[in-house]
């Protein structure tokens, strides 16, 4: 195992700055050596002087009647040799020190180069550590996707999100889009198995923020889907709403359950199955019809069936005249209150050179029938049924 400290470079510089250089050490050593040699020379001189004086009184010798000091004569060459040797050693040391200045400065440069190489190695090591940390983070990020348990593997294995605007641009849902805000600008997509995942599902770059749900482009989000179920859900923040995906026999009806009390929502009550038109205050927007309403519509329906055959006989020639070569007609229904929308449609179609000869307008009043025919459309008005409204 290799441990690399991010502070080693700074510690090295701070420590080395307190130690003397090799050149400084050499100069101090030469001076110290000179002092030592001078001390030894001084000691030897003192000893020689002492021995000389003592020899004159202790060991006198006669030579032709004269007193001679044997130590002064015998020891003079030895003393001179020692003195010359010490001086030669001292001057040789000083001379060598000055002659090796260039070598010392070269060593200093080499030492500086050594520190530079250490810094470079440290930089490369730091860079490699950063790369390994990024790689480790990417692996952790890759594994930070929403994980589904084995108990949902048959109907839920992956979750992604895509732009709501792109989703409405890709699919005509039959309803106008509520303008997205920062809190509801994405569409959630649930995938039942891995083969349905987007190609970029496990790409770490899809996790664009702190969420563990990847953000996928619209085309890629549904690229591997063979079927797509769309649920248009309330996106207000005034309800504690939950959505349950139940693995069961497939139904295209969305059930609505509510904690319903005597006056609407009551959080202390249990869930009850309610109609989709019930409000929080308990008001029912889709009330069942009363008996008188049912009877009235039965009468209208009876009139429709009684005149059915006569209406078909009257309509058949109009349809045959309007049908295209592929026996196709376009049917529209309009009343006089929608006459402006009808005129806008015809003007837009003609401005784009669209063929409107195969369009039949079922008018609920004579005014609309006359307007449609005046615009160049084929129109049909059934007075036997429409007169009941």
Could you write a compact summary of the structure shown?
With 389 residues, the protein is mostly helical.
What's the SSE blueprint?
Blueprint: H1 8-16, H2 22-58, E1 61-63, E2 66-68, H3 70-99, H4 101-142, E3 158-163, H5 164-170, E4 186-191, H6 218-221, E5 256-261, E6 264-265, E7 271-274, H7 291-306, H8 308-322, E8 330-334, H9 339-351, E9 359-363, H10 366-374, E10 378-380, H11 383-386
Parallel strand pairs: 8-9, 9-10
Antiparallel strand pairs: 1-2, 3-4, 5-6, 5-7
Helix pairs in contact: 2-3
Comma- or semicolon-separated keywords:
389 residues; 10 strands; disordered N terminus; three-stranded antiparallel sheet; 11% strand; 11 helices; mainly alpha; three-stranded parallel sheet; elongated
What would you say this structure looks like, in words?
This protein is mainly alpha-helical and 389 residues long. Helices cover 48% and strands 11% of the residues. The chain has three domains: 110 residues; 93 residues, no CATH class; 78 residues, no CATH class. A three-stranded antiparallel β-sheet has the order 6-5-7, with no helix packed on it. Strands 8-9-10 form a three-stranded parallel β-sheet. Strand 9, helix 10 and strand 10 form a beta-alpha-beta unit. The radius of gyration is 54 Å and the shape is elongated. The two termini are 90 Å apart. The N terminus is likely disordered.
């Amino acid at each position: 195992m290799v441990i690399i400290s991010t502070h080693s470079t700074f510690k090295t510089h701070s420590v080395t700055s307190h130690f003397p250089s090799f050149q400084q050490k050499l100069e101090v050593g030469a001076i110290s050596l000179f002092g030592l040699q001078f001390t030894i020379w001084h000691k030897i001189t003192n000893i020689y002087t002492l021995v000389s004086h003592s020899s004159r009184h202790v060991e006198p010798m006669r030579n032709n009647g004269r007193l001679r000091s044997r130590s002064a004569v015998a020891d003079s060459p030895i003393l001179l040799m020692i003195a010359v040797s010490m001086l030669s050693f001292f001057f040789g040391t000083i001379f060598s020190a000055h002659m090796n200045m260039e070598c010392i400065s070269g060593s200093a440069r080499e030492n500086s180069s050594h520190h530079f190489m250490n810094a470079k190695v440290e930089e490369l090591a730091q860079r490699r550590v950063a790369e390994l940390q990024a790689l480790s983070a990417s692996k952790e990020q890759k594994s930070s996707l929403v994980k589904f348990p084995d108990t949902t593997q048959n109907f839920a294995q992956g979750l992604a999100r895509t732009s709501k605007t792109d989703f409405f641009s890709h699919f005509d849902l039959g309803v106008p889009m509520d303008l997205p805000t920062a809190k509801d600008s994405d569409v959630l997509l649930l995938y039942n198995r891995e083969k349905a995942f987007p190609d970029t599902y496990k790409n770490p770059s899809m996790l664009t923020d702190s969420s563990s749900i990847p953000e996928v482009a619209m085309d890629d989000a549904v690229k591997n889907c063979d079927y797509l179920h769309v649920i248009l859900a309330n996106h207000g923040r005034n309800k504690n709403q939950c959505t349950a995906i139940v693995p069961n026999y497939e139904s295209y009806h969305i059930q609505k359950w509510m904690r319903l009390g005597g006056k609407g929502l009551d959080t202390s009550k249990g869930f009850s199955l309610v109609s989709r038109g019930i409000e929080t205050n308990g008001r029912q927007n889709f009330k069942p019809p009363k008996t008188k309403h049912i009877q009235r519509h039965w009468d209208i329906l009876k009139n429709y069936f009684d005149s059915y055959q006569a209406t078909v006989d009257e309509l058949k020639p109009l349809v045959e005249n309007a049908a295209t070569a592929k026996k196709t007609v376009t049917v529209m229904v309009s009343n006089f209150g929608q006459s402006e929308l009808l005129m806008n449609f015809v003007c837009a179609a003609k401005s784009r050179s669209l063929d409107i000869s195969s369009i039949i307008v079922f008018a609920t009043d004579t005014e609309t029938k006359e307007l449609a025919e005046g615009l160049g459309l084929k129109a049909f008005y059934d007075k036997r049924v429409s007169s009941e409204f």
